[in-house]
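Lecture notes, unit on protein representations.

Consider one protein chain, 219 amino acids long.
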Amino acid sequence: MASKTHILNRAPGMAGQLLLNLRDASKHEDRAAFRWNMQRMGRELGSALAQSWPMAKATCTTPLGTATEDIPAHQPAMACILRAAMPLHHGVLDVWDRADSAFVSAYRKHHDAGFDIEIEYLGAPAMEGSALVLVDPMLATGASLQAAYDALCETGVPASVHVLAAIASQEGLANAQKWLPDGTSFILGGVDSNLNEHGYIVPGLGDAGDLAFGPKTRA
């Protein structure tokens, strides 16, 4: 089964405005504003995920009778790839407020030949049979998504996989479509054309973790 890809800024909506807010280097000194706009993007991505989610009927009693509504038939497990994904994850949870959460620390360990992805921490419920949603603001090379997925599968194999990202590169999207299971769905704020020699998305927005929380020591 082929993967499904939905790119928000290719249709009318707020994704383009939010991406401009996040990309604008003249505003990058305001970390609170960057986190807030990334959180808002998470709400957009989470709402788009809900539009294609299996639904079921649920009934409640109101002061004047009963009401029946369509609600998600099951809840996903939202995997936050630390640290950069925290504001985006927060926004997704504003929509999916009953979802479980998993946390994976994946970082680039730089060396002379480039970098490797290292996993230092995993805190997650059992993934066996779950609907796993990987939340990461920048899908650059796809390597961190692959490493996070492999780490999460140590607790069991999910029944379905979904990727939410603010920006992807064309190369990273192609890699993730190849590396992640068949049928993985991708909901992206936008897709940029290039990666630079350091593996960062161009034009992108820079380092999402540093912009949200400040610079870190490079390993």
